[in-house]
Known about the structure:
The protein has helices spanning 2-5, 15-19, 23-31, 65-75, 96-105, 119-128, 136-141, 145-151, and strands at 11-13, 36-46, 49-54, 59-64, 79-84, 110-113, 132-133. The protein is an alpha/beta fold.
Amino acid sequence: KNIMRRGADRVAINTALFETPTLINQIRDTYGTQAIVASIQAKKRDPHNYECLTNAGREKTGRELFQWVEELSTRGVGEIIVTSVDQDGTARGFDETMIQEIVQRCDVPVIAAGDAGNVDHISQLIKTAMKKMDTCQVWNLEPNTPYLLKAAEVI
């Protein structure tokens, strides 16, 4: 409540959604669905199976990623931001298979985070699946990123 009173129009929540399942309903009913961004950190178990993590990617939840995405979408989150723990900070690109599956399984905007190492990673993901992504890391690596994305015809 304090964050929203201070002017935030949305909050990204991960661990608390697992600890307090009714939190989605409380925020949705008080502030609207646009105020809830479900943050998901996922780790690959095998080529087509991912587990959700909490506490900055340190704690296993036992929840299967795609089932969790469907539940979050059904329960009324406004957006989902997803990070592949396996790729995060490596600058090797996004886990496109995971992200494409998430986009197909939910009706809310999906934001890919944490994995872009160059403009090609962003360009490829935009062309295949995404409308939104967190690109903080690549801005530090390539100062001309906006121009390169425009030249690649992705923005």
